[in-house]
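Entry: Transcriptional regulator GfcR
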Amino acid sequence: MKNVDDLIASAAELADRGLSKGEIADELNVSRETASWLVERSGAATEPEPRAEPDGPDDIHVDWNAIGSGGKRLTYIGRALADLLMETNGEADVTVGIEKAGVPLATSVSRELETTLGAYSPAKHQWDEGDLEDLGGGFSRNFSPVEGRKCFIVDDTVTSGTTLRETIDAIRSEGGEPLACVVIVDKQGVEEIDGVPVHSLINVVRVGEQ
């Protein structure tokens, strides 16, 4: 995807498949606000003379399909993420991947660090409209539990930090201890969330903002 029109078309396709706006945000690696804007724009695109609209939300789209579509490349990235975690965070018992994109990354990290593998589905996957705080996420029973265990958290991008914070809170609520988070791309320059360090391979910095 190279431009906004491509993103609008992708958002429309995902919406037609029945994905919630939260899932669309996850699939396109954009914020929930951006996902809403893209879906609304896709509907307006069929109007003969759409009214002038303000610029879209201030966001950055991250397309890491070149990594995700290749098993070897994904493994290499997982090794790099594991290396970041090993530097200063001690040893974990469980590597928790945030669904969907974080799970394959966490699988590679888990193998590299010789931990068990956990999976967390965030509340945003259920979000369409209304208050996200009224929804809840959960850990998959098909993967390792986090109770009483030290955990690393793996995701693909940081957009606002909300999903990482939710996962940290969920691990603590289950009686686990989140040691650190790691992502491929950080769009906010987050160094820690609720006392838990956040590491990234790539930091995006906007230059010249007012």
